[in-house]
Every structure is written in C-alpha cells, then in structure tokens.
Design goal:
The protein is of the alpha/beta class and 415 residues long. It is 37% helix and 13% strand. The protein has 14 helices and 15 strands. It has helices at residues 8-16, 46-60, 67-70, 76-88, 101-115, 130-142, 157-160, 183-192, 212-215, 284-298, 302-323, 351-360, 384-400, 406-409, and strands at 27-28, 34-35, 44-45, 95-97, 121-125, 148-152, 165-171, 196-200, 219-222, 237-240, 330-331, 343-347, 363-364, 366-368, 372-376. Strands 4-10-9-8-7-5-6 form a seven-stranded mixed β-sheet, sandwiched between helices. Helix 4 (76-88) runs parallel beside helix 10 (284-298).
C-alpha cells in the first residue's frame, strides 16, 4: 500500500513521475470532472471525432457504397478484432468484433454445449453479470430445458465442477465487487473435469493483463465501450481458440458469416475460422469509433497500465480508510493485488444518494444495487490527484450528511 504520511502535494508528485501521464491529453475530459466511471463508459479519445468526420464526409459521403471495398469497411470486424486480440493474448484470426456482448455470449455458449453434447450443466457464479445468466437461461429454454444453469458462490466454483459440467462461464473481473479470478488456474480446473471455459472480459480488457492463449481459454467475449473507449453501445468482440474453429458452429447463421456472402446462395455454408461468428451487417461508424478507442489502449504498455491501476486502487482504498472511517463504508474489493481488477467498490446502506451527491460535485462513479458505490480507475487518463480529490469530496459528503437531501434520493433509470 501507499505510505500513510503524505499530502496532496505528495500525490501530485506521483503524477509528475507517472510514465502514463502524457496519455491523459489524448482524451476529452470535461473541466472540473473527476471521471471514475470508465468501467461503464470510457471517455472519447480526441482523435475519434476527426476520424468519424472523415468516415462520414469522405468514405460515406463521397465513396458511398464503394467504401465497403475502397475504405475497407468489410474488413473492420476482423481488423479491429485482431487489435483487441493483442490486448488479450490471442493469436491473429481468433477474435472478431460483432454485435453485443450478450449476443456473442449466446453464440459461443451455444457452440460450447454442442462441443460437449453428453453433459448438461452450465456452471457459473451466482454474482455473475446478469446478462450472462439471462442468456444462458434463454439458451436452455430454446434447447428444450435439457440443460441446467447451476449457480454457486465464487469460492465454490472449483468444488462444483463435475463430470456433468459442459461449460464453466465466468466474468474475469466481477462487475459489482472488482474481484478478479485467476484465469489460468480456473481454466485448468475446468479442463481437468472435461468442461470448456468461457470468459467474459468486459471488465478486464484494456485495464488488466489478459492472456487467453497462456491460460488455454476456449472462448471469451467482451464489450468495446468500457476500458476500450469505443463509445456508448460500441460493438463487442468474441474470441474462439483456434483449436475449436474447425468444428464449432453458432446458431445465428447470418449472411456475413457465410463462406461467400456475395454468392447469395439460398443455403448456409459457414465461413472458415472466426469469420463464421459474424452475423448481420456490422455498424461501420461504431466500428470506426471503436478502432480509435482500441488504438488508444494499444499505445500504452500493459505492464505500466497494471502497475498504475494497482497504485491508484491502493491509494483510493487507503484514503477512504484514513478519511472516511466511522461512516459505515465497507470495502468489498479484494485487497490482494492478484485478486483485484481496476475498480474499488464500497458498500453503504445509503449508497445511491451518496453517489448522487458525489456526481453533483463532478465526481462521477456509479451505483450497483442494492448498496454498492463503484469507482472505476482507468490508468490511461486518471491522475493520482483525482483520487485524492474524489475521496476528499466523499469524506465531506459523509461528514456533513450532504447526501441526505430529497434530490439525491430520486432514482434515475440508469444508476
């Protein structure tokens, strides 16, 4: 942890020595805002608007339909997929960008249960992100209720693996607590029991080191709008290990997943490799914005990102414990570095109004029901002084009960 004898100037000195500090200037960040919600929506890279303008005025405006070929639109899903692959340790041709995380999870989960046809259990963590569980439930219903979604606690996963487990489906970094699984060891346990391993990397990619090849993961999915800074609703990605590609199939057999889409055959023939995970026509402008966001992460060294992530979260935890003691906050994020993602989550019975009071002061985090204040600490643009200032506001809000005002109690649709 950070030494306890320091002040804001000491924290500012940490920024001065930060090798990632120059990258902050590559993002558009509102004046007076401390942005601690990059784990929900990353900020816009400064180059994105210019790149989109070019895509709209030149590629779309002048090139029109010709830009599918001339501007390489048709290649975007695989080109950006390979770039994301570099961030997760995948080989070229193992990642493609398409659709949403939910849709991609449905595709790979369907493929996985077909690859293990004699097994009936999809195993997952009880606190997994809800969409993952919902998609599994929908698939089970579609398959005639022949499978079971078995949910257990995070510490019960290995013991719950058995000879009927077809797929183990986990999120690498838990969205509500920030707890991070050991990808390699969990995957090895799944394989030892004959199960396939599916990872959701939504809260990992771009923030913590990931190596799906070294871990021998079978499948992975993830979104493009969090730490990849691809914009609201940015397309997601899907990873399929090369060893599975010759024999997998997915249920959404759309025309761009066909071996020859412009053959216009009435019969589906799947493309070779990762391309068969494409479905319909992909959103070119969204993919263009996502590529800018992915490039913003590729410009940094992942070891430096991880080092700063741990330093930021260490600092946040320590400042909260030093300055907010006695006000009912409970740390739910693991203290151990090897078990912590790039966020800090605090439990408080008045979590929602406290977060709203923080947002009113320009400190933007988010709330996750029933009682979690969630702070994402993205190393590319967050400064150490931002952490200092955020906790100073939090301490004052708790001490003065500034959260206890009617406007902060009113629940918005998005929390």
């Amino acid at each position: 942890m950070i030494a306890t004898t320091f002040d804001r100037q000491t924290v500012a000195d940490m920024d001065a020595a930060d090798p990632l500090a120059p990258l902050r200037d590559r993002f558009t960040l509102p004046e007076g805002v401390v942005y601690l919600d990059g784990n929900s929506l990353g900020p816009v890279p400064k180059g994105t608007a210019e790149r989109l303008q070019q895509a709209v005025t030149q590629e779309w405006g002048e090139g029109l339909i010709r830009s599918w070929n001339a501007a390489g639109w048709i290649d975007l899903p695989r080109r950006v997929g390979d770039k994301i692959g570099r961030l997760i340790g995948a080989r070229p041709g193992e990642v493609v960008v398409a659709d949403s995380t939910s849709v991609n999870l449905f595709k790979v989960l369907s493929a996985a249960v077909k690859l293990n046809p004699d097994r009936r259990v999809i195993l997952s963590e009880r606190e997994n992100f809800p969409t993952d569980l919902y998609m599994a439930q929908g698939l089970i219903q579609l398959l005639g209720q022949q499978h079971e979604l078995r949910l257990v606690g995070a510490d019960e996963i290995v013991a719950a693996l058995d000879d009927d487990t077809a797929v183990l489906m986990l999120t690498h970094v838990n969205y509500r607590t920030g707890r991070m699984f050991d990808m390699a060891s969990i995957t090895a346990e799944a394989h030892a029991h004959g199960a396939l391993m599916l990872w959701d990397l939504a809260h990992s990619v771009g923030a913590v080191p990931v190596d799906v090849t070294a871990a021998q993961a079978d499948f992975a999915v993830g979104c493009g709008y969090k730490y990849l800074n691809g914009g609201p609703g940015a397309p997601a990605f899907v990873y399929v290990a090369e060893r599975h590609q010759p024999r997998f199939s997915q249920p959404l057999s759309g025309w761009l997943g066909h071996a020859q889409p412009f053959e216009f055959s009435p019969y589906y023939r799947p493309a070779e490799g990762i391309a068969r995970y494409l479905c319909g026509t992909q959103p070119v402008l969204s993919l263009t914005a996502l590529e800018c966001g992915v490039d913003s992460v590729l410009d940094a060294d992942m070891d430096l990102i991880r080092h700063k992530s741990l330093a930021l979260t260490d600092l946040f935890i320590q400042l909260v414990e030093d300055r907010c003691a006695g006000y009912g906050l409970e740390l739910v994020t693991p203290r151990e570095h090897e078990r912590r993602g790039s966020q800090v989550c605090l439990r408080h019975p008045q979590g929602y109004p406290i977060m709203q009071a923080l947002i009113s002061r320009g400190v933007i985090g988010d709330f996750r029901a029933p009682d979690i204040l969630r702070f994402g600490l993205a190393p590319l643009y967050l400064r150490y002084v931002d952490v200092w200032d955020a906790v100073a506001h939090l301490a004052d809000i708790l001490a003065t009960r500034a959260w206890d005002q009617p406007q902060f109690q009113q629940r918005a649709t998005v929390t």
